[in-house]
Structures are given as structure tokens and as C-alpha cells.
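Hi Y.,

Following your request, here is the sequence exactly as I used it, all 274 residues.
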Amino acid sequence: MSFLSDELIPHIDSAYPTTPYRVFIGHSLGGLMVVDALANHPGLFNGYLAIDPSMWWDRAKLLNRMRAAHADYRGASLFLAGANSLQQGLDTVSVMKDTATIFSRHMQSIFKLRNELIGANHLYFGWKYYPEYDHGSVPLVAEYDGLRSLFDFYKFDFRHDEFEDPGFKGDTLMAAHFAEISRRMGYTVPPPEPIVNNIGYSLMGHGQAQRAYYYFHLNMENYPNSFNVYDSMGDWYLAQGQKDKAIGSFEKALTLRENPDTRKKLLQLQNVHR
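Below is the corresponding structure, written out as C-alpha cells. Let me know if you'd prefer a different format.
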């Protein structure tokens, strides 16, 4: 853990354009390490994915320590995956009483960990048991499910069937949704510029100019260094007959990036004004 926190993570952050949100994934003894990081190294990671972790290790030392600690997992998310290690004649109820094999102790410790973490302080917790996968085959499917669980807050439920209705009152939902994403991720995640831009043009095409303005202006607030947001706002002003403001927007766009289409629109407007 010292290597990860003091050497590897700083090196990656120095070499790549990373974000502060980190996910730690491990299987078996690696899953034990994931749970240890959650319990004993808060703040190093945000998301934790423990795949059939070996919580039985050292007479369930880590599990017993977690039971005694009653930690606050504020801001952390964990997905716990349990595989099918049942021996012949056992099911998920009877395995909790079996002491004959390490396989039963392994499953017992995972179920006990699940029970310990359900309702834990401020922990976003997801769990799934995979009866059709054993300890060796579960990692691939559990990693996929786990990532979906850890990021289940990210998807925006866009109301396509209602959106083009002039009476639609949900234009602020997108900004609010990405504000929540930013809170969960720990850094600012604005609505994607191309999506917002397309919405603005779609509303213009449906004669809803004021709603279109909201989205174009939202992009200007979130992407003030983008040539495209000023070019789009120039198109909006031009469609409203506000030629002076359109010229100003196109000029602003061209200070950020030269573009032949924008230059052509600007020259045409300037010639009209002469």
C-alpha cells in the first residue's frame, strides 16, 4: 500500500492527465487487499471492487477488525462479488454452519462481510452472489458488473419523448445531474459540450429559441475556451436578427481558433453592415 500511495500513484499522476477519482480492483487475496484499503487507508481510492475476497485469511483478522471499528466510509463506493465455492451437499444456508473445509470458511467470511457492510456509515454498497461462477471464473463478469454498480450514478436519463414539447420544464435537470456527478467524483464534470450543443440546435430547429439559448449559454459557462460555443451562440443571435451580437460572438470564436465557416459568416455580416 505504501508503494501504491507513495510511488505508483504519484508517478501515474505525473505522467498522464489523470483525475482524482480512483478505483481499486482485486480478486481473491487481491480482493482482501481491496477491503483492507477501504478499512485502513481511507481517501486513497474512491471506488472499491472486491471480487470473491479471501476474508477468511489469518482467522478472519481483517473482518473482525472491521466489526470492531464501525468506520465512517464517507464518499466511498464498494461492490462486493461472491462466487460459488459450495461443496457437495451444501447450499448458501447450510454453508454458514459447515467448518469442514476452507471453501466453506471462505464463503462464510464473504457473507459476513456483506452483512457487516449493509447499512454501513455513508458507504455506497453493492453486492452480488454468482451461483453459476466459481472462484476462478468469476473475475471477468464481476468486474463488469462492479464497474456498472460503482458508476450507476453517471447515466443521465434523457427524456427524449418529452423534450421537444414546448411546455417541457426539465431543462435544468442536465446541469443538476452533472453537479451530482461532480460531487460523487470529487471534481467538476460538466455536461459534454457536443451533446449540449446539439440540443441547442435541435431546439432552434423546433422554434424554441429561448430554450436553445439556455443550452448555448450553458456551454459558454462550462467551456469558455472553446471556439465552438461562441460560434454556436453567434448562430443563435443571427437567427434572432441580432446581427451586432452575432458579429461579437463570431469575432470571439475566431480569437480562439481560425475557422473558414465562421470567418465566412463574419465577413458576410460585416459587408451587410457597411
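The mean pLDDT is 93.

Thanks again,
Q.
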